[in-house]
Amino acid sequence: MTEVVLNEEGTIQVLEEPFGLGRWESSETQMSAHAAASLGFIGAGTINAEVKSLVLLRHLLNYKEVEGELGTERWGVAIRLVILAQSADLEASLTIPQVAARAELNDLQASAILLVHGYEHAGLIDKFPDFAFFKGLNVESYANYTRASDDIKDFIGEHPEGIKPAKLGVQTRPSRNDADMATAVVTTVAIAAVADGKPFDAFRRRHPLYTEDDMNVARGVWERLGEGSFDPGIEPSLVAQARARDALRKADN
User: Fold this and answer.
1) How do beta strands 12-15 and 71-87 pair?
2) pTM over 0.90
3) Which of 10, 35, 119, 120 shows the shortest CA–CA distance to 75?
4) By the number of CB atoms within 10 A of the CB, which of 40, 101, 149, 164 ranks highest?
5) Low pLDDT (below 50) residues in the chain
6) Is 13:6 a contact under the CB 8 Å cutoff?
């Protein structure tokens, strides 16, 4: 049996197998309020332009991956707790529990809403009527929202007939130009690190988000500038540092 759904452009996307619930994944992300508004998580009218705004999201996802024209697409069900935090002094490093605690102390304003994508069932809004609109957030209500998220997840598991898989995201395939640009950036950062006398291990610790391919590119910089001599825990030689500084000067000219 095939399941046919429409994507955002209105064209038909066929999932070759019926969607069945697998393992739920939980994650947390954050983004600017304007980015959240463009994605439909909040309304643009909820943003106070006179203060700083930050949107934090807690995702519960159940999906399968299919290959699409632009890359790997995720189709399935999402339960999202969306929190809008606003304050004159707002750090980007805040976590959701910290936002709830600071809202409790009136250090910032915060409101929250639960959004469900990829699922339609009349009993859902009846069972969870208090979470369909933005409401003030504090420590107690955060606990209630978290509990409701888990209850909705259980409800979906008990009533899978309401699943209407939604496109939750696309991991696009990098173009050749994108890959070349990424390599150039990593190479430049690595040359600067060698010029500063940094060991490769220190570079790796400083850039935890670099992929293994990125690190292979960076390692190649250490090896080339050191003429094959490479020890990840030792500072590059003075000759290697001089070569790196020379390479940076030439790049600036």
Assistant:
1) unpaired
2) no
3) 119
4) 149
5) 1-17
6) yes
Residue 6 phi, psi dihedral angles, 5° rounding: -105, 135
Block residue for tokens 């995201």: 169
pLDDT at res. 78: 93
Q: CA 109 → CA 48, 59, 85, distances in Å?
A: 11, 22, 6
Q: Which helix (DSSP H) or strand (DSSP E) does residue 239 occupy?
A: helix 238-252
Q: How far apart are CA 225 and CA 241, in angstroms?
A: 8
Q: What is the DSSP annotation of 27-89?
A: EEEEEEHHHHHHTTSS-GGG--TTSEEEEEEEEEEEEEEEE-SSEEEEEEEEEEEEEEEEESS
How many residues belong to the chain?
253
Q: What is the pLDDT of residues 112-152, one digit of tens each?
A: 999 999 999 988 877 776 776 788 899 999 999 999 999 99
Structure tokens at 154: 């259980």
Q: Which structure tokens are listed for 226?
A: 């050191």
pLDDT at 14: 43
